[in-house]
Specification:
G3P_DH_NAD-dep_euk (chains A, B); globular; NAD(P)-bd_dom_sf (chains A, B); alpha/beta; 2 domains; Rossmann fold; about 350 residues; homodimer
Chain lengths: ~350, ~350
């Protein structure tokens, strides 16, 4: 059996943290993987030098995950076509808005038998349609795509603090790589699972991908509650209601998605928790209440102009629900999602967050 | 239809907060309830006066919920037999260790058609047997007993901060009070549900009762994690694993209990969250790590000698699992529960909390 060759497409905070995990595992499973991992780096200057050459010299992503050794077997490569050459295991971890641009034209250069896993947070919405990134990647590249997500703040993972992550794979039975090849589950499990980064496998790619995006709307709700000085009864109620709304939303509109992914797995309940305790959507929402400023203004002040995912996702869900209102059978609709949207975009006072819940 | 007469057996922090809720609701539903509520007060002196007479004068439980008006229709009564006279709706909210003593001999003085609801946190264990308090109350009094539990810190409920609570009722179909009487669900829902205290009803009395007790073991785990300075990935993982362990434990040993009660309801996921964010079990566990002291010493220092429920419950679960080890089919047992027990009672270093998870 030929060894799997790994390429990480993306080199931000999370991409770098996962590169370190993968770099250790390809060595521990040298029967399965080639030792060298390539990491596609969107080239930029840092201290007057190209970031990719600094990474290759210091084995550290000084810009996005400083102070952490990635492993000397991680090779940064600014040319994507070169980076993916011969790669059979592609980890896609670029910001969601760049996926289509980055992967454009890549299909023709893929190695035979290549597979992908998406670590992307976010969904693509177009009125009454929502697409998850594993599906988009699968279409763009013409290959199978799994999903990985969980309560995984990159800096904590980089310190080997104990955590869990959920791997969503397609149903077995269609092995495009010959009957002796590894299953998707085995491939990605061996590449990611560590003593302090525990992988649990579920047969639910879209569930994993959706959780990681929709949780940010709940985190905004939790942040509004914090900003208003409400106590932990209220915050816990908002989180519980939020879990149920995104679970019901996804199960309703994505019939293959499983409730358990939301209620029982790290990508669901645990990631939602982390985001509601310490995420940046929570923080900005808290500050919206305390300062009276809109999220756009706080994005500039606190995030250097980076856009916050929660409001964007709330807007996508709102537009989706408007377009498909006739299909919503849940008796009370999705009041928490709609209230978060109204607070972000319609000037509704945050105190009204609990209205209609 | 004769009106229901309410008696609250217990007058601590939570008993007083729920008295205030019930006092408002009996007025709002005067077609169902008599206006006067009695509250059994275990008599004690406060500022040289009997507590029950201060409550009746000021309509405030100055000792256990000071600064909060309970309502002038709450009548404190130190004689339990007088308190329950004519009462058809008994709210039992005494500390679990006193239930059997307090209710001894009460059966003979009950009004016809009386029903109970248990707000008690805790379980009674005897080696290989665990009993929930709704079951114990039902046996002691010979009447039906429901359960109420949720993310309900008393002081926040007393301020009308938005929260939810779960009402567990027995299956319908056996109406002991005549076919025209209210169902258990309708009786307790009308007595407890408020715009800021939202009741959801489930057909799972034991599930509600068990969540409220077993959550404290998870809260200890979360507190150890906090004390060790571990981040929110780890804490979220511990909470997720904890939810799954107590769910699996209860579903396995109490076959009528429903998974959803743990995964979807306020008494489950939301109450666990609150306890892991701000409960006193969490706090003492954090301090155990930071000071190196045992929980017994911290109970004296921080809780004025009151005993903490988490360690006690961990011990009960440990003894139970020892006694019924042959029946445990879960492949890895219950490592979080066992590790918490070992840290509390066996001197295991808290760093080992994640071992075997």
């Amino acid at each position: 059996m030929a060894k799997e060759k790994v390429c990480i497409i993306g080199s931000g905070n999370w991409g770098s943290a996962i590169a370190r995990i993968a770099a250790m595992n390809v060595k521990d499973h040298s029967d399965i993987f080639e030792e060298e991992i390539t990491m596609f780096v969107h080239e930029e200057e840092f201290d007057g030098k190209p970031l990719s050459s600094i990474i290759n010299e210091k084995h550290e992503n000084v810009k996005y995950l400083s102070g952490v050794q990635l492993g000397s077997n991680v090779k940064a490569e600014p040319d994507l076509i070169k980076a993916i050459k011969g790669a059979t295991a592609l980890i896609v971890v670029v910001p969601h808005q760049f996926v289509e641009k980055v992967l454009d034209g890549v299909k023709d250069h893929l190695a035979p038998g290549a597979r992908a896993v998406s670590l992307i947070k976010g969904v693509k919405a177009d009125g009454g349609k929502i697409y998850t990134y594993p599906g988009i990647i699968s279409s763009l590249l013409g290959i199978r795509c799994s999903a990985l997500g969980g309560a995984n703040i990159a800096t904590e993972v980089a310190k080997d603090q104990f955590c869990e992550s959920t791997l969503g794979v397609l149903p077995e039975g269609t092995k495009p790589h010959g009957k002796d090849s590894l299953s998707d589950a085995d491939l990605w499990y061996n590449l990611f699972n560590r003593p302090t980064f525990r992988i649990r496998v579920v047969s639910d790619v879209d569930g994993v991908a959706l959780c990681g995006s929709l949780k940010n709307v709940i985190a905004l709700g939790a942040g509004f509650s914090d900003g208003l000085g409400w106590g932990s009864n209220t915050k816990s109620a908002i989180i519980r209601i939020g879990i149920m709304e995104i679970k019901d939303f996804c199960v309703h509109f994505f019939p293959k998605v499983k409730s358990e992914t939301f209620l029982e797995e790290s990508c669901g309940v645990a990631d939602i928790l982390t985001s509601c305790i310490s995420g940046r959507n929570r923080k900005v929402a808290e500050d919206m209440v305390k300062t009276g400023k809109g999220f756009q203004e706080l994005e500039k002040e606190e995030l250097g102009g980076q856009s916050l995912q929660g409001p964007q996702t709330a807007e996508q869900l709102h537009n989706f629900l408007e377009a498909r209102r006739d299909e919503v059978s849940r008796s009370d609709g999705f009041p928490l999602i709609e209230n978060v949207w109204k607070i972000c975009y319609e000037g509704m006072p945050p105190e009204k967050l609990i209205e209609g819940l």
